Amino acid sequence: MKLLHFFRRHVVCCYSEAARLARHPLGSLMTVGAIGLALALPAGLSAFLRNAEGLAAVWGEARSFSIYLKDGASVAVAEQLAEDLERNPAVGAVRRISPAEALSIMEGRSEFAGALETMESNPLPWTLVVIPAPEAPDAEFLALKATVATLEEVDQALADTQWLERLSALLALAGQALLLLLFMVLVALVVIIGNTIRLEVQKQRDALEVLALLGASRGYMRRPFLYQGFWYGLGGGLVALGLVRLGLWILGDSFSGLMALYGGDRVLSSAGWRQELLILGVGVFTGWLGAWRAVAGQVRTLEA
Question: How far is residue 284 from each of residues 125, 162, 166, 236, 293, measured CA to CA in Å?
């Protein structure tokens, strides 16, 4: 029975503070909007980084290397080498490009048209494009390239992975910067919410002094302001979710167009339910913490 009464008091207090904020819509919306904008910045950057890291699956071929066989290599030699490579666990697929197919590709590009007209025969060799398995470590895959380059039938094996390594390093740096930004945003939100709640405490100081004289506990006097912080944080979290979804929707077509250039059909993914709950949880926690920081010291001064 006591537990039910305790729960009911909290529900009534929570509802009354929501009604109080609703009676001052302009000020409440401005505060909630500021919190939402602040939370949306790291949340949006996190969604962007998550999608950028997910492009590895679409750009898996970017980690590939090309094997150029020596002139005169037969179809049987090319097929045998391709089959040997396909049995390697670090290899996801091997694309075979015959001399005739390579010539056809070059003829379709206007910049090579003049040069090809002067050639009496097809000078292009057999080419094998080796694509790594998704879980293949970079070191193992590059070691395979070095081994293949020593084979007798291979003229050269070329890979251009430097740009991908730079991209991975840049994403790692951005992830660390995001954590620093999130910390600074949380500190700023605690200060903003704390100052807002402190103003409310000052407005109701006379009522709080009367409650203190009547023997009200610290928890009883803190409770309304903590629920104000809760509503501010929850509202800010919902605004942040809306802004992140809106931003991803606006960028969706451009992202799909970029993927089409690389032959992929990946779409811009939104935050999953776990990430959305995390955003709401961070908003509620910062709201509660800011309110506690503001009201705890004020309540102690009333009892002094």
Answer: 63, 43, 37, 8, 14
Nearest to 240 by CA among 283, 186, 272: 283
Which amino acid would we find at residue 64?
S
Residues 127 and 173 grouped into a single domain: no
Using an 8 Å Cβ cutoff, are 157 and 67 in contact?
Answer: yes
- Stated length of the chain: 304
d(CA 68, CA 76): 15
Copy the structure tokens of residue 40: 């949306």
What's the pLDDT score for residue 299? 67
Four-CA torsion 49, 51, 54, 60, nearest 10 degrees = -100
Residues 207 and 283 in one domain: yes
Residue 63 has a pLDDT of 67
Neighbours of 269 (CB within 10 A): 13
Is 170 in the same domain as 283? yes
Domain-embedded: residue 2: no
Model confidence band, residue 232 (pLDDT cutoffs 50, 70, 90) = very high
Give the DSSP letter of residue 267: -
Q: What is the DSSP string of 103-137?
A: HHHHHTSGGGHHHHHT-SS-----EEEEEE-TT--
The predicted model gives 20-44 an average pLDDT of: 88
pLDDT category at 32 given cuts 50, 70, 90 is: very high
Tens-place pLDDT, residues 286-297: 999 988 888 876
Residue 183 sits in the same domain as residue 236: yes
- Residue labelled with tokens 């003229």: 155
pLDDT at 18: 82
What average pLDDT does range 139-154 have in this prediction? Answer: 83
Q: Examine the domain organization and report whether 213 and 295 are in the same domain.
A: yes
User: How many other C-beta atoms are found inside a 10 Å radius of the C-beta of residue 84?
Assistant: 13
